[in-house]
Amino acid sequence: MKKHRNLSTSTSLSIAEMAKKAAASQAVADHLRPEHRWVGIGSGSTVVYVVQEIAKWDKTITDKMSFVSTGDQSRLLIEESGLRLGALSQMPKNTNLDVSFDGADEVDPDLNLIKGGGACLLQEKVVAVASQKFICVADYRKTSEGLCTKWTQGIPVEVLPCAATRVLDELKRLGSIDPSIRQGGSQKAGPVVTDNSMWIIDAPFAPLQPHSKRSSASPSSTGAWSAETLAERLIAIPGVMETGLFTGMVTKDSTKGSQKPVAVYLGLEDGGIKVLS
Ligand SMILES: O=C(CO)[C@H](O)[C@H](O)COP(=O)(O)O
Known about the structure:
- By secondary structure, the protein is α/β, with parallel strands linked by helices.
- The protein folds into two domains: about 10-145 and about 250-275, Rossmann fold (3-Layer(aba) Sandwich), CATH 3.40.50; about 155-245, ACT domain (Alpha-Beta Plaits, 2-Layer Sandwich), CATH 3.30.70.260.
- The protein is built from eight helices and 14 strands.
- The strands form three sheets. The protein has a seven-stranded mixed β-sheet with strand order 3-2-1-4-7-13-14, sandwiched between helices. Strands 9-10-8-11 form a four-stranded antiparallel β-sheet. Strands 5-6-12 form a three-stranded antiparallel β-sheet, covered by helices on one side.
- β2, α4 and β3 (about 85) form a beta-alpha-beta unit.
- Ribulose-5-phosphate (5RP) binds near residues 43, 104, 105 and 124.
- Belongs to the ribose 5-phosphate isomerase family.
């Protein structure tokens, strides 16, 4: 399971775990319906609590649902919880997942996200965009005024291995400070290989401007990228398969096909829950 970079004490971790669990419980209660048939399940430690909540439901209800994973971790989680694994390819044509639940590494006031701390961002984005409703579940440590403030290890970027060095050069040209290929550490020699056989580059940037606060999209005039503009520039680099910036406008009428969640459930330190939408 992924380690959190910004917190190290066991006390704060247990408070954080309680916060994640409470947020997951509320998010499932508010957004999963017995009539739902297709449910997306994200990746990371918070989503474990989401699946635990769903697994508490009466089996006669959940047996009618199919759960679509966002990678190997969530596939195993679904299977081990006794829920039925489904795939986007099995869904009726022109339909969407009823709802999907996923975590985040950082959330700004416009509900733009950084994801991919667990290296699952590509399938996570596919599932988010294939969902009628994408619900994000996180805890109090994850919010900031501008992305890259709390999650300082860099925006995760999934790349074709043979393009990695060229992508690193391009990222530096865009202002990334010392981007690097994520390494497996003591568990694996060499780069982390994703569920899609790609590599991850972590690209640190100076804190981004949220859409609502930005005065210009260009870093030359404001000193910072907007999340939307940077997302567009990163995905345009040849060899980049997907980025961990989940941005894009959500209108009140149509939430389909958005990378952004319609709501973020944040577990708080005092046991409460804050819903951003
Ligand atoms: O994007 C992700 C994995 O690629 C996770 O959702 C994100 O890293 C949050 O994880 P956690 O719930 O463990 O904090």
